[in-house]
């Protein structure tokens, strides 16, 4: 049977680019997004046949919705070969401002619990089958905490650790766990950044390289590789030097800054 890939956050950015890449590679698509109508319109514009795709409307932060989505996907299309927990949001926060704490909770709910809620329902069926690949979308931002990015950096650090734990748990089962850590990718998530973004990569290039890493069963991959080198160097910097290096760097826009 034609392989099936499930992707969350598929209505824009990395998720959309990966959906198009997998469609071009002959995969069937199970795509999850809150904006299901916009996603279906995009699929129609790409002329992807109806028997090759299905759209599921769900919020990854809602565990019940995601469990229902998984059941519907398995019933309608079968158990996916690859599940990519891609959905995420990036909003600047200032935790000294009480109004920003609910924003941080929202980021963590989407970026961390959303990954667990996406992968969780497929673990037991994949283990029973003895195969499958679960993919968590981390970020280079999860390697060190950046000023003004506390929510996003914390969420991606949690994703990296969660996937590492899950990989160890599933090691004997035949189910692979892949952690992808994008650097700067030219998507709506980064378009409002007011700072230099080295090695900025088009989403379609990221999608190709990510799919190659997933197919190879890589446990952990930073894309582009240059950002992996940068991340390792930043991790090695003493805290005092790291703090001086990023002092005065523009922060990620807060909700009140962007009007969201």
Structure description:
With 260 residues, the chain is an alpha/beta fold. It has one domain: Rossmann fold. Helix content is 48%, strand content 15%. It is built from nine helices and seven strands, in the order βαβαβαβαβαβαβααα. It has helices spanning 13-24, 36-45, 63-77, 101-129, 150-170, 203-216, 225-236, 239-246, 255-258; strands spanning 4-8, 28-33, 53-57, 82-85, 132-137, 175-182, 220-223. It has a seven-stranded parallel sheet, sandwiched between helices. Helix 2 links the parallel strand 2 and strand 3.
Radius of gyration: 18 Å
Question: Main sheet, how many strands, which sense, barrel?
Answer: 7 strands, parallel
Structural class: alpha/beta
Give the helix level as a range of percent: 40-55%
Q: Using the alpha-carbon principal axes, give the shape.
A: globular
The CATH homology group name: NAD(P)-binding Rossmann-like Domain
Percent of residues in beta strands? 5-15%
Mean of residue pLDDT values:
90
Strand order across the largest sheet: 3-2-1-4-5-6-7
CATH topology label: Rossmann fold
| Pattern of helices and strands | EHEHEHEHEHEHEHHH
For the secondary structure, the number of strands is 7
Short description:
The chain is of the alpha/beta class and 260 residues long. 48% of the residues lie in helices and 15% in strands. 41% of the residues are buried.
Question: Mind sketching the topology for me?
Answer:
Blueprint: E1 4-8, H1 13-24, E2 28-33, H2 36-45, E3 53-57, H3 63-77, E4 82-85, H4 101-129, E5 132-137, H5 150-170, E6 175-182, H6 203-216, E7 220-223, H7 225-236, H8 239-246, H9 255-258
Parallel strand pairs: 1-2, 1-4, 2-3, 4-5, 5-6, 6-7
């Amino acid at each position: 049977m034609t392989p099936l890939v499930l992707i969350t956050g598929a209505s824009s950015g990395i998720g959309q680019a990966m959906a198009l890449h997998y469609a071009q590679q002959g995969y069937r698509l199970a795509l999850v997004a809150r904006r299901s109508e916009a996603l279906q319109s995009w699929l129609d514009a790409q002329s992807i046949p109806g028997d090759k795709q299905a759209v599921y409307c769900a919020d990854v932060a809602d565990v019940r919705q995601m469990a229902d989505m998984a059941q519907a996907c398995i019933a309608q299309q079968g158990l996916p070969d690859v599940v990519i927990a891609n959905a995420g949001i990036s909003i600047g926060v200032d935790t000294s401002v009480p109004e920003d704490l609910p924003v941080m909770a929202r980021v963590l709910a989407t970026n961390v619990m959303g990954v667990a809620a996406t992968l969780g329902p497929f673990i037991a069926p994949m283990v029973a089958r003895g195969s499958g690949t679960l993919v968590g979308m981390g970020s280079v931002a999860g390697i060190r905490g950046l000023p003004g990015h506390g929510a996003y950096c914390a969420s991606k650090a949690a994703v990296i650790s969660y996937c590492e734990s899950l990989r160890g748990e599933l090691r004997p089962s035949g189910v692979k766990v892949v952690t992808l850590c994008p650097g700067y990718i030219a998507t709506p998530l980064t378009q409002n950044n007011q700072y230099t973004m080295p090695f900025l990569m088009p989403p379609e290039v990221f999608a190709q390289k990510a799919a190659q890493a997933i197919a190879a069963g890589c446990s952990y991959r930073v894309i582009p590789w240059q950002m992996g080198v940068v991340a390792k160097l930043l991790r090695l910097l003493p805290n005092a030097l790291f703090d001086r290096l990023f002092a005065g760097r523009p922060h990620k826009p807060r909700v009140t800054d962007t009007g969201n």
